[in-house]
Known about the structure:
This protein is mainly beta.
Amino acid sequence: MVKHVRVLCGAMLAMALTGTGCSACVEMTKPSVVDRNAPAPVIGDGRDRRGSKSASDWATHAEYVVAFTVVGEVRGEMLEEERERQEGMISREVIVRVDRVLWESPDDKEIAPVEIRFQAVGWVFNNNNGVGERPFAMGNAPRLELGHSYVKALDWEDDPCSSDPHDGDWHGLGAWGTIPFDNGILGVGEIEGRVQDLRNYETQEPSFREQMAGQSLDTLARALNEAERRTSVPFDLSCDPEDQ
């Protein structure tokens, strides 16, 4: 059983959040849904932690593929220097409840989690130009919004500062490693902070997420079982004393 999940800024967020840090989490909010009339999110770019566009990517790098619902959100505090500058970013942590394990790697190392806390993109603000606060989203990726459901490929990363093999964190693969799953339909739900239906996939670039839109969970699991599994090279991590 996974004992502890630390909050980290993943590789995908690091480029977008450079210089801002991960602020302390201070407030829980109640589940809600994406407001279709809310301001359009600011879209950012970043480097994916792992390949995630193909079924082979998922089968190679994931230990589990799970269906989950976002049940909690924690808003971070503004950094003092950004508050004074009146411009910057606000971090966010989401708590997800795992509803179902859909697929598991034959060489998985950890028991599938029942709850996970992810560091997620939050908001950008600029009070100098009258824009104020707006949600931030990574291109082609869900924000992981409260009350929404998703199917996600999970990869376990050991804690390099611990000798206990059960210390570590669950991570996603990359922008394409999460599929909206509202109302039990693959492909329906939130991406980039906006709710979409199956018609949105007509213009998206080819990906496993696009292939699975409108398909059943059994079809998804079968596709992963049939996909080519390549050799997944582990990350060469060293212990940073500040993380302890």
